[in-house]
Amino acid sequence: MFQRRAIGLVFFLLGCSASPPPPPPKTTPPPPVVVTPAPTETATPAAAKTPRADQIEPLLEALRRAEHPEWSRLVDEIGERFGGPGLVRALDAVAATPPETTYFQTKYIMDVLRTASDPRGADPLVAWVEATKPSMHWQGVVGAQLAEIGDLRAARLLGERMKHKPTNLHDQERWWEADQNGHLSGNDLQRISAARLLGDLAAMHPDKVDEIRAAVEDAVIAWVRETREPHFYGMQALAAIRSVRGLGLLRGWAFPKTPLPARGALPPFPEGLQLAQSALRYIGMFHDEPSFPKLVAQLERKKDPALDITEDALNRDNIVMLGMALRAIGYGASEGLSHFADPRAVPPLVKFIEDTTWHEEARHVACEALAWCADDATRASLIPKIKAQITKGGPKAEFIASCYAVAFSERSAAASAMDMVDFFESTTLGSVRRSMAYGLGSIALDRAAQTKLQAKLDDKALRVDAALALLRGGSGPMTGLLSTIDGFDAQEKERIKDGLAYGTSEIADDEPTFARLVRLAIRADEAADVVVRGERQTWVRDAVATGLESARYGRKPHAVTRPVLRYRLFRAAQTDATNRRGIIALLALLKERGVLLALADMKGDVAAPAAKALAGLGKTIR
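Above: the chain's sequence. Below: its structure in token form.
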């Protein structure tokens, strides 16, 4: 769940608490390993009871009279029990004076609202804005909260907020208008966040893009034109809303007429090239067909075949500026081609990847792009290429082998599973094997693949990756696998936990139903219902949840952001009865308390499992 921002001044209002002392160390030896399913009644907490609406009145009255720290405790209790609607009602209990207290209390409630992300809070929030006519700052905050839960009414509020510079909204004399980044008059984070959320809204409502564009296009274009270096989220917003006027800007930024730096050139970096990397990515996201051949042409911008711009060569040969400019162009073009996901890009990407004079980071991104441009058969054809590079040996060949393997960690097909398992040998590069483990973890493995992987659990050199693949992609009882992993050493267990977290830190948009992720949530719950040496194996679920926590902003092409994931799962939980169990389990893993509160408040079959999952979360608003 998202962490709320805090500043030192807020401690005046909120206070803090000390951490409890650690438990005393165990002095008795552990009992023998016993693997048994956890009792059903203890595996999942009982369903929570939905509080009556009239029960909030005493809390609101107490809130009006309370002072720190009781005030913040009451807000948290309202959030826990009544979710979004209750928190909006708490806004009416905010102190009217002095202004700094009004600001801190409003900010605290808004932060709790955004952390909760309860879809039921949308209508009350809109009504609050219409009734109280708050400042443009708070209207922007409400717009962001509405966007987080997928409400289209966010577009109008965010569009209005983007018209205002921070210096026009915040006065330095109002010292309390600050966050951890300093005074709000000195940063543009609210508009940056608004641009990102507009992209999310377009992804949530592809059939409403015209409506979103009408509400925000003028404001976004004006914002990106304010400075010479527009933020990349502004470019993303223009691509997401399919702004024809913005397309001309994207083309200009992506394909500037600025020449490349000369050998030995000194800083500063050429101004015309500073925006190229991001613009190349987002012109691909726009799917601008006239730009496709230009994107491919960027992979050939290094005209001298002998020019080495690898990481080792940059400083050694005094070509830093030239090398980094080419790296940025190759990187951005590869991301743009990834968004296109067009088979026409496969041959130029392969040529680029195998050119050992290009920068490694750009080639790595090209391998990720290859996963999206190639079909299953083309990806399968990379298997012999990887083997050939491993046989060839040497750092350059090993890089190519590892790079191609990334295409399988990005996207994998069940038809290639046995070929991928074949890389679980001691002679295989560890980086290749790990990529294959991630790829296998995204496949619902058949019995043959699982049996072959299980045989690798006895080999210390292979067992971490084999266990990782089986935990994520396997099926059937978890007891035997968890018993085996219990015998691994501490370092191996930590590597498995890290692998589980990393494997869920980016969520791809190629499955509208998120079937892979839902299956993993069910596996994590099944693991938590197993007891080994007297302890439930909740570590699998905890590691997966850690990875999901970082899957928020969509750092690379095809990555789903947290708001988009939340919105789609909320809709799916209501309509997809077949997969509802896994969807609810996934929402619990994500600690989406607000969504679970909304589902538990509904009529029909979704309410009971949502309430049951909600009860298992404990207090998670703060």
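The chain has a mean pLDDT of 91.
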